[in-house]
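Can't paste images in this forum, so I'm doing it all in text. The chain is below; anyone willing to post the predicted structure tokens underneath?
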Amino acid sequence: MVAGNRWFGRLHVIVVLMLIGSGLAVLGGLLTTVVLALQSGRHVDYGFPGLWPAQDKVDLEQGLTPGTQVVRTMVELTAFNAGDRPALTALFVLTWLPTTLTAFLALFWLSRITLPGGFGDNVLFSVRTVTLLRRIGKVLVIGSLAAVALDFAAKTAAAHILLQGAYAIPGTIVSPFFALAAGTGAYVVAEVIRRGLEMLDDLQGTI
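Text version of the structure:
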């Protein structure tokens, strides 16, 4: 039991550190947004990232070994136009805020589950834990889907503002997939605990 409590305490520390990192990511995104909104056209340090031009010409001949042929090239741009700064700033927020906010909320509720006071079985396997797991599952599933949609819309709109012959820009796929899987897993664990609690109540009622 003592070893289990120590392991659970270490797990709580890890979750809290991840929560702090997620909070720092939110602050970093806010700082970058402020810089993007205030920078002038003369001194540009930040721009709208993740843009794909419709036509790109890159000379790679000097960087290839003999006999190597380029099958496909893809150029990703970070661009900025001071005349469209308000629109670009608003669109930039949509590319990072949903993802970081989803991660922050999920880690916050997970840290509530792993609190030192929740080491006991009666606290850990409870309706409170089921509720928190359902919240985690809901925010991961809905948040990841919303993040993909908003990222896609924001990058597509920014591409039409900054590039000629722009086309739809796909958002990131890997991170939302893992968030969907984790959210589904949280729902499954919550349902297992809920049914276990119901079975325990029935068993105690028959004794």
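Helices lie at 2-38, 85-113, 121-124, 127-162, 174-206. The radius of gyration is 23 Å.
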